[in-house]
User: Fold these one by one.
Assistant:
Number 1:
Amino acid sequence: MKKLLCAMIALLLLCTGCEYKDIDRRIFVVAIGIDQGEREGNFKVSLKLALPQGDVSKIDEKMQILTEESTSISEALRRMKSRVEKELDYVHCKSLVLGEGLAAKDIRHVLDWAIRRRDIQLILNFAIGRPGALEVLEIKPPSERIPSNSLIVAMSGQGTESPFITSVYAFELVNRVYEQGVDPVLPVIEAKGKDQFLIDKVAVLDKSKVSLVLTADETRLFNLLTRQDLRTNLPARVQEGKVQYYTETSSSSYQIIMRQGEPVIRYNIKIKGIIEENSTLTEVNHRMLKEVSSSGGEELRASVEALLIKVQQSGLDPFGWGLHYCARHWNNESELEEWERMVPRIRFEVMPKVEVKYSGMIE
Amino acid sequence: MGGQGDRSDISLEWIKGQLSGFADLEYRTLQTSDDETELLYVKSVTDGQAIGRAIIAPYYEMDNSEAYYRYLACSPGSHTEVDRKQALELVLAGGVCVQKDGRLIICEVPKAQSAGVRETITESVSQGPSDALSEDLEVNMNLIRRRYQSAQLKMETAVIGNVSRTKTAILYDESRVDHKVLAELKDRLDALQLDILQAAGELEKYLCGDKIRIFPKTIVTERPDRVVFNLAEGKVVIMLDTTGYAVILPVIFNDFFTAMDDKIHLPIAGRFLKLLRIIGVIMTLWLPALYVAFTSYNPEIVRVQIALLIAGSRATVPYPSFVEVLIMLLMMEFLTEASLRLPKAIGPTATTVGGLILGQAATEAGLVGNIMIILVSAVAISNFMIPLNMMSFSIRVLKYFFILASATAGLVGVVCCLVGFTMYLCSQRSFGQPYFKLFVLDSLGTDNRKRGGSK
Amino acid sequence: MTQNRYYIWLILMNSLINIIIFVPRELIDGRFTGTQAAIPLAVLSGTLITFMFTAVIRKFPGKGVPEIFAASLPKFTVPPLLVIFGLLWCTAGLITLLSFVDITLRFISPDTRPLIVLLSFLVVVCFSVRMEPLSLLYGLEMMLAISLPLIVYATFKAVVNPAFSWDAVLQTFTYSLHTPNWNSFLAATFSFSGYINMAIFNRLFHQLKLKPLHIVIVAVQGFIILLLSFLVPIGYFGTIGVGKHIYTWFSTADSIRIETFLIERMLFIFYMAYLPLSLVSVVIHWHVGKELLLALFPVPKKRKSSSVRLWQEGFILAAFCAAAFSLMHLDQYELNQFGVIFLDVRWYGEVALLLLLLYCYAVKRRRAL
């Protein structure tokens, strides 16, 4: 036992310093942007690097962006290695932005690359950059202290609770790309000048490329239907005036039912709300709360139905109805075809249950 | 023990029989030409001078034995009518049994050793007794017998060391001790061949044969209450004359993280303190190693914000992280060692000056990172949370193994090292008893037996 | 006397380690072709074999398989049997070790040299294999105490994640009507083969009592762990995408984010939970293999006995380590294939061992009459 211990120490001493690379000899890539290259089939890869600074107390973000074009992503990355003095380290890469042009062609190549590389994590946020990935990476909001932090925080939904942001992780994307009966979605990030971005749209892909981009309002409804407890405001119309109510809790679920041989998707949406804004200038009372609830529900139903029909007509399935249907039918060979034949005939029933419970701090 | 109440058969012989195995039991016969009187007392709890003055001298001064008997019966603190249980209790509390013509008197001549008793230095507690064991075996026996008044507490003596002739006392509670342990201890003591024995820790070294020991397998303590507590748990205590420390065995790993005031605190507070200590140990062992692993091998593990902070603080540091860690840790060790040797009045000053100024200057000069300073101080502080010095030193050394492992293989090395040491701990035995395992699960099924008030 | 709980730990260890040893991959490969039906079958047969094996070996209190064989089988058959079983156990450890080295290189330290990783594992393993069996059980219990809470936490986090697709799980359920898949069955029974370590550890158990509760625990834990290790990755990667991942469970752990902790990625917590567990399982498997092979050597005479034993043990361990080094060159598919072949062969080995023990018991009974 003693000898073994000695041997262990000796071995450890011998091996020390083999593959040693200190943190200050690495440079962290925090975001990757991939665009189409100038030449057909090329990739233009941009990296956003975080440069650590000695004095932490100074709010002074430093970052650098590298761009390189090459026939393959790996080649571009290798070439960029010789442009910085330190080793490029991708382990902290948290977001991958695809250029709009690339997303309109095929994302599967990039996706395959991202999940195949072992140092890129599976909780990487994917997004589409508009007009291009590089422009999105170049954004530097003034509130940012750590490079690209704002992008990371916004995309992963850790900071802002914006109802318009859908965050998509690499593992979700790969799940949806290969799964039958559900289609992938990606958030769209728009660059507004050099220090602002706008994330309020979601793109639906037909397994490989973008084929439908939802508007901001539709994105909010999409999030309402796919997420628990979406914090948003929704409109309601009472007595010629407009009231906005804020959703404290929300939940939605759906069933696919067959009514006289016809498929019907019935959505149940439950919302508990609080009045946030009232333009009618009248005092809110109990009757009015009820009115807001019912008219809000009506309004919601109309807009949700419009969204669902739009999605149905596009032939895409971002909600995973197909999978839902297959998961509840045992005829595994034919269920998918059966579903696909059914899709154009589907009718939607939206049953919103809006309960506005409070009038806010004043009556 | 039985026989309560029937005074008829209570005799000095009976008490003597009950107290067999007491090396500090004193039995004397006072003889004059025509009659004799027997005396029986426990030396360590009675006042020898007082016995001479109040019991032995009058015997020879008064020729009349009946008068002597009456004198004893009237003197303060004497008892004539006692049952067996009381008799034993009285003797253990410092009573002297005088038997004359079949009649028994117990006189209280207790000795209270407070003058020669120091305060604890190495194991201080916030509340609770502050006496420490002294260098004198008799005094120590007094301290312990006063706290453990049971006839079951046996004491055997031996002399160790051909030259030093150190008096050694082995104490145990006969009804609770594991006799296998006792036998093994005696075997090992018999096999000891050495010239000089001066410290309790030294005895520990000779008793546990293993040459490379990283963890102590006996507790060396200066607190009589810890001794008593462990006696009640069925452990064996060895006390050496001239040392001021007692050796407790067998021990388990967890014993080293129990402070004596854990029992004084409310249960939740006590457990919280114990948890704190365990976290402290984990921190002191792991923090430096993890720092090396995170900075040199696996920066992906911590959040990007933290990684950038570390990278920023290390920007000016010219050498690899494990050198940085080693330099700072060595500095800290120097400080600790130095402040131990310095006179008490200067010690804190040296630490403050050394710690503050050194750390500040080192970061200013860019030789070590800011984060490193925080880390080293955390390590230093948490290391001293371990109540027993022996273990605290072990842990102090042990962290370098972890640093070495993490410098070799990063996080994998740290975890491997942890597994290795856990397995090593599990393979250890303290006098044939398991040293480290999940003792909690053992006691789950059985009720709390006669454990000495432990949680 | 060793308490019965150590027996449960041995089984639990094997159950948990299945994630390392290619079991989920085998199960997922058969997700459309009958894994679902194979799992309950495996639970039934695994529990049955566990029960029978334990019942038989109880009749030989305090004895390991080498002693039982030596007492009841013809002399010439014992060494080859011991070699075969010894190698089987050695392989079990080898596969855990190699695939864990592979996992480490893929997920944790891509920069470290494979040799260093393997070496640091081997140092720990070889150091521990030579310990007393009782200490190994203490160690196992300790490692479980460290790992189990982390694994439970990771699994809990995995299942409550909103990104977990229950529809995909249900979709796999609809494939349950398929006839059981033999390969999945063999792989799934691995979860129950922890009892087989009793072949040597029975030396410590003198009064092993198998209460009905124990059987229930064995069956339930095996069933739950198998279901989780099969279904959780499907919830993350979908019914089709899941087939793309090699170390399915580690990829799954990589997909879980911890919002409020120093460490953001569950992968590392999961890895740190599994590293001690797999090391200790390698230790236990190799310990059993070593003891089986050690029975081939003549028991040394009293003088210098410890050093002779040391050389014998050293020789066996050196052979194990050499095997580990020489198998390092296997590529991913070969390693996988190796693991799958082992999973199959192991089951036949288990059944053979059970039959041999039954025969030995019959011999013993006949002699007693």
Number 2:
Amino acid sequence: MNVPTMAEMMAQGKQPEVLFWVGCAGSFDDRAKKITKAFVKILQKSNVDFAVLGTEESCSGDPAKRAGNEFLFQMQAMTNIQVLNAYEVKTIVTACPHCFNTLKNEYPELGGNYQVMHHTEFLKKLLDDGRLTIEGGQFKGKRITFHDPCYLGRANKIYEAPRELIQKLEVELLEMKRCKSNALCCGAGGAQMFKEAEKGKKEIFIERTEEALSTQPDIVATGCPFCNTMITDGVKNKEKEGSVKVLDIAELIANASDL
Amino acid sequence: MHYLPNIIFATILVVGIGFFVQNIKKIIRNIKLGKSINRSDNAQARLKNMALIALGQSKMVKRPVAGILHILVYAGFIIINIEVIEIIIDGLFGTHRILSFAGGFYSFLIGTFEILAVLVFASVIIFWMRRMVLQIPRFWNKEMKGWPKNDALNILYFEMILMSLFLVMNASDYSLQQLDVDHYIKAGSFPVSHFIATWLPQNIPFLEILERTTWWLHIVGILIFLNYLYYSKHLHILLAFPNTYFANLNPKGKFNNLEAVTNEVKLMLDPNTDPYAAPAENATPPEKFGASDVFDLSWVQLLNAYTCTECGRCTSVCPANITGKELSPRAIMMKTRDRLEEVGKNINLNKEFKPDNKQLLNDYILPEELWACTSCNACVEACPVNIDPLSIIIDMRRYLVMEQSAAPQELNMMMTNIENNGAPWQFNQMDRLNWREE
């Protein structure tokens, strides 16, 4: 894919409109890389002038902070802020709600002031500005339920942008009983993604997947690479991977237009 | 001897209120043991929160059944207590129904109080049934055994008794009014208690004794209830107001950045720092990172602990608790209050805190509880009075990780990876853009 880095842009004396913060999952996790590529395809189709940091990007520090390691978080944050400020970055978009929350809310006090958008907000804005058209394509008429990521929903009160995008796909949007501000966590947040769950009687991702499946969806839509992993595992656990897909909103939009 | 009842009344009133004030002072002293945090900003938004959430009960009605019943009890209880003003004046000066000069308005008030008293009584019965008959799970979690369960029931019984006393007092008064007994001037309207009056024997000495007994028990009951608050989860009827006022206004996902850490990190990143420099003579030792005891929490977190009324809405939406993990956000608040009370008693006894070889961590809250949290903020969202259990969990994790290096092994690996290669997994940072070529 032809994706410029900030360094390459700078060498050409260019300043992109927006920085796409890919995040660790989006860079390394095989499943999340597909989300990254889908989002890039939409950006390219919409003629968005963007760049990535590439090898100059580093973990936002979110999992370290939630695990209680404030030192490591602030080391990461300040190092990233030095890089971002050196490139005079103004606007950041990311497909990871954890990076989004940290960059948006926790970086300003440490000297990093940017307009930070989650990719669903950004796509909504492209749509509103007439730079992006969304069509139903292969998803037309499908039953889709949306799992609210905690760090997008409760943490930052973004509930509508992802839903408006999904509805543009001419699908049937199904709500789980626990949705929006009452949504149940997928079980990955707070650094749980990187450890075994504490002992209990059930896995959180199973509890949430069961709820998602109870809406009898064709697709469970997510807006977070970690939620995606958890729900995908849940669907496999329930042996439903043949009939229920777990897709990020960026993938839905890109696939609908056969990008 | 004519003034004896007035003197007894004044004494009971002064002792009752005085004792209450003493206990409130203790609560304020204990809350001030917490670390400072600035919540004096943005008074307008804070007042709005207090008006909507504490006074307006906006978060209570998210669960409509409990919410509406709660509003009935809350409104009823507060409005009926207007009657206490009259009771106090009558008690001090030996008058009877002193406010009855208000005529029709007085009748309207008394009538309203009676209807509210019945509604409160009925709501409290339903609350009791929700706990004891329907056995709604959040009232039966393991932290609700013993005192917390009895405390909740005591409050319900108290309210039933106070409402009954109020109505029987009015019923006997009404009967005495009908019998044209001196002193019992015809005042007030009794839409409820005139039914009760039909069951009372129309015997003047009996009615007089009944009226006096219920009048005294009612006011003494109110004073006992007032003093019960300090020992009870019921403190929320007062503390909900400051608690919603001082609550966090930032987006829920924003965790505070520890300033002490910022200073250290800035030094580490500054190329001009001399790594071998000895600390200045008068340098203060670095602050303790995170929280292992109540002294390390902020005063807002301690206020949270006293405000919690143990309704369990937080725990009922906690993904960890739902799936059987040890964590219960309500228990985090209850344990914080228990430890703070223990510290307070220690101070009462020794004038200042005498180390007792105990702390909040391990003696009350276990690491297993802390590590079960997904930081999803469901508990914070659910709390009807904006308590923030998550902030305590994170502060205690900070202590475990930064002071004790006691993170679970897998999290240590995750953090080592971030330090070494800028990602929570073991991938080379130089491979970060490989997806572009794949």
Number 3:
Amino acid sequence: PNVKLVTSDNEEFVVDFRIAKMSVTVSRLMEAMNMSETDDASLLSNSIPLPNVTKAVMARVIEWCEKHKNDEPKEEKENDKRGRTTHVVSDWDKEFLKNDEFGRLCQLMGAANYLEIKGLFNDISQTIANMIHGKKSDEIAEMFNIHCDLTEAEKKEIRKKTAWCED
Amino acid sequence: MFYPSSSHNVDSAALESESLNSDHVIDPEMESEKRLMSEIREKAEKRLAEIGVTGVNGEAVAEIICSLIKEHLRKVETERNTDRTLAFPDEIVMTIFSKMTTEERAPLGLTCKRFRELNF
């Protein structure tokens, strides 16, 4: 059975029921609209509106879901000794995300968060963390397109406090 | 306190001259956009003529194409200049940071106040 998803720019995507269920948000909406796998009429007569996702981003989300529809649920490792939560990004996922420019990656992450697709969300957050790794503060600011609102005095104070990290 | 009228005259003359000069200042970005749009318009008109859309109709369609492209370019520019973290709630930013070691996170504190607060 298929489910119809409608994006913010009014594009309709017809996806397999299994793919639609990969999103917790879509699952909840289907339940609320009494749409079930065994009731074709309910699936045909309804469509799920997704006002926070654009057509371009939705196409990428579906591509990811198609690849991962048969995956077993992954267990996220808890904080390791160095204070981080590790997530292994598979080779296919690395390849899938490598050509997305940073702004597009942020949009995709926003969609994964809104749709509640944990695997995709973790893949992107790990990819962004890897991109930040090794960069200086001004390079990070440039990457995120943010203006530094810290004064020179504040920066000096922070540097003093975190000097141990730079050794 | 009043300033001598001659000084006022000099100032306004200087201002006038500055304003006249500023009319002649060429903004390279605007010039390059103008050139790009005129190239697109030329190509659109040529292509429209090939498929038989000429005269007033051709001009109108070319105008529509150009305005759509302009709108798209403006959107791309806005997207480029938007703080990308604004769309992210604190939880998302913290999830990204949690994937990094304490040492790796050190430069985040110097990036901006929000990152500093979320990181520590």
